Every structure is written in C-alpha cells, then in structure tokens.
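To whoever is on call:

I kicked off a structure prediction for a single chain this morning and the downstream step that reads the tokens threw a length-mismatch warning. I double-checked the sequence; it's 185 residues and nothing unusual in it as far as I can see. Pasting both halves so you can look.
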Amino acid sequence: MYGMRRFRAALVWLTAGCAAWLSGCSPSTPAAEHPFTYNLGERAPAGRLTYTVFETRWMTHLGEGLDARVPQNRFLVIRMSAVNGGSTEASIPDFTIQDDHGNSFDELSDGIGVPQWVGYLRSARPTDFLEGNIVFDAPPAHYRLQMADETGKQKVLVDLPLNFDADVPADLNLPPRSKVAPGQK
C-alpha cells in the first residue's frame, strides 16, 4: 500500500516535470508573427480569403501629360486578386510592403491614374472575387507584400522580386545603341 502511494506520487511529479520541460520547447513567438511566404503566382490563403499576386510593375509616373502623377520615390503597381471562399461578405484589409531591412510602406489610398484600381475600401461577397491593381509609393527594392484575412489577424506574405521590365515609358524615344566597340571608329 505504501509502495503504491509512493509510485503514484513519483508518477505525478514525473508528469509535471515532463509537462514543464515540454512547454519550454514550444516556440516563443506565435505563428501569426511569422507568416508563411508565397511566390508570385501562387495562391496564398488567409482565413476565408485567398490571394493571388500576378505581376508587379515599377512606374515613374501614372497618367499622361499635365495630369500625370509623379511619386516621391517610384510607383509599385501590383496586379492581384482576392477570392472570398466564405459564406458571408468579407472586407479585404489594406496591404503593406516590407523590404529586407524591415522598412514598410502602406498601400496608397488614392488610385488616380492607376488602371483597373481595386479601390481602397474593399469587400467581396460570398464566393465572389476582386481583381485589379493596388499601388504603393516606395523606393525600388526587393519587397514582400503583406496581406491578411478579413479580421486582420492571420497574415500571409508574397515575395516580390525586384524587376524593372516596365520601368521605361513606352513613349520615350531613345536613339539605338551603337554596335561599335570602344576605341573603334
């Protein structure tokens, strides 16, 4: 009888010790602070919303002529979609971009001159989608686009490689490059 009580006490202490040891092994930061990063073109689920980022374009101006908007840095236009997979309407939170040094830039609330701008205050009905462009004013760099579920709590990231394919305006007439090697006439 006395041996059985001793065995139970030892078992309780062993269980408590293991529980304390295992709780020390859990990550110190929740998963929400380290969201999963997706690549361009991949579906990025966040709660009832699923995002897809299709392409990015760096632009020196938006619009034409005297009405053209000029950024403080450069305009980063991102073509994306958001699908509401839920059974009720969902608001689509604002987006931010973050560079490799931790600097972040908020999405611009003014879409004047942005083709197919999705707007700033957005929502999607059940099983509906939103597709178009969002815009940022930021210096050219490698960024990650941060998106969140309808509550703003569950976050996902999309890696945005630095790409200048559309940087030069199409109406800029540059002379063709010479094929003469240096030192030759």
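Update from on-call: the warning came from a stale cache, not from the record. Cleared it. Sanity check on the structure: Residues 59 and 161 are 15 Å apart (CA to CA).
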